[in-house]
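ok so i was messing around last nite and threw this chain in just to see what happens. nothing serious, just curious
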Amino acid sequence: MKMKYLLDFGALALLYFLVLFPRWRVRGRDRLIVNTLFFVYLSFVLYFTLMPILTAIPFVFNHPYTPMNLTPFVDVLAGRGDFLRQILLNVVMTLPFGFLFPLTQRGRGKFGPTVLFCFLMSLGIELLQPLLNGFRSSDITDLITNTTGGVLGYGLFMLFRPVTSWVLVRLRPKA
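result:
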């Protein structure tokens, strides 16, 4: 792995062990496991979409910023590239968000906040990609398909809610 990525993963590890782990551990084993899974998932999303981040920050203004493509599904309509693969990957990337985010909310995970935060995460990624890397671009289609993945993930959460509730209850320490 390149040194650039190690720096980012090192920063994420410090954040986890110095800040997040101590907070989550006192809330119980079930909270620690769910929040840690969500953190690991988000770390992989960062890896695939934005990294390297820390080493790119000094060069943010050294390349032109390409504005977001605001025509939905333009690649599909024009038959360019491997658009079906890109759409599928964008949906699959955010399925775990829609499933795991409600679990971090102690069973109070509602549809609206889950979709809103999935949308905001995707919007943040899409706006930052061209800033951090002059070869990356942002696209409204990615925003739509990422949010769709979050919605489908929430559907899976609702489908498996009884199972996840049962598992989380088993992880809680006996009083």
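not much to say yet. The two ends are 44 Å apart (CA to CA).
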